Amino acid sequence: MKATPTTMALRTLKSLNKHHKSLLLSQQQRRPSAPFSTTVDLPRITERRPNESGRGGRASDAGVKVALFGATGFLGRYVSSGLGSNGTLTYIGTRGDEFAYRHLRPHHELGRAKFSYYSSRDKQSMADIIADADIVINLIGKYYDTKAVSTSVWEANVDVPKTIAELCTEMQVDNLIHVSSAAANADSSSEWARSKAEGEKEVLKAYPWATIVRPTQMFGHEDKLLNTFARMAERFPVIPLVDGGHALTQPVYVDDVARTINRIVDDPEMFEGRRVDCFGPQDYSYAELAKFVYDITEQEPTLADVPAEVVKYGAKVLQYEGNPMMTPDMVDLQTEDYLPEMTAEKYAAQKQLGKATPIEKIAFKYLYRFRKGGHFIHAEGYH
Hints:
single chain, alpha/beta, two-stranded parallel ribbon, 13 helices, 13 strands
């Protein structure tokens, strides 16, 4: 008897049903019966398996937890951005409200940053931030006495780093990165430079294998170096150069320093107990920097050679501004060279951390706004 199309279709359907039943039976034999639920078969997102981490990057898990102090400062925002880009789970300590750190939120994927309030005088609140961290980064520092909460330069640069280092030792944190300064010097005429040196000493005393990062003066969009020259020219017709502006400085791009810190986070054991100096490719006198700035901004103030003691009279008035552009202690700092203390051998060893960005490559991007008419004043069709 010849099979019709209908008969063939029925036979195929019976064969598929038989195969499906045998497949279900084999699956039931392989695993015990369970209630109707997806929790048995699907992994929970909130539960990580051992060693479940990636190489880092946005929307990934770098497998590293970092506690970051001083994230809302100049350098801190760049370090925070780097940590977020590498997929690092970051605990960020803050002393302000949500408006003080909201610019840091886009740096991290949702759930990859935790913001916690702390007081530098409440040790337990700082311990809560450090508790789950593999690495602690301290960027806290002040160049003037804060009036709102009566925080002195010495407290910010010495007492707070000391407390963080002691907590890292007590809580057995794997690594500590402390950011100091290339100007740190116990014999300096500047209280700020002396406090930075004392802060290093206290950190290494409490946590001997800490990594000390010592940048020179940093430049960048929010800096207090090049921007200060331009802002002073907006307010004053005469700009004083402390002792003629002959002291030397070797400015470093702030993002280069942040990348160096993130490089240390990638391989902290390699930098344990070491001092890492961060500096630009060329040194300049303060007089040269002032002329460089005004060449970009096209401002025309008078540059005057003024003795340090005379400049201090004006600085004593300016120091009472909310965010002072000049203090008597800053005048003392500008009488000394702000350069890294390195031998030729140490300089050669630093090559592994990358090439420094020239100041000429970045400065125009944020100084042109001081021009009268802005960036397009010399372009046809915009005025």
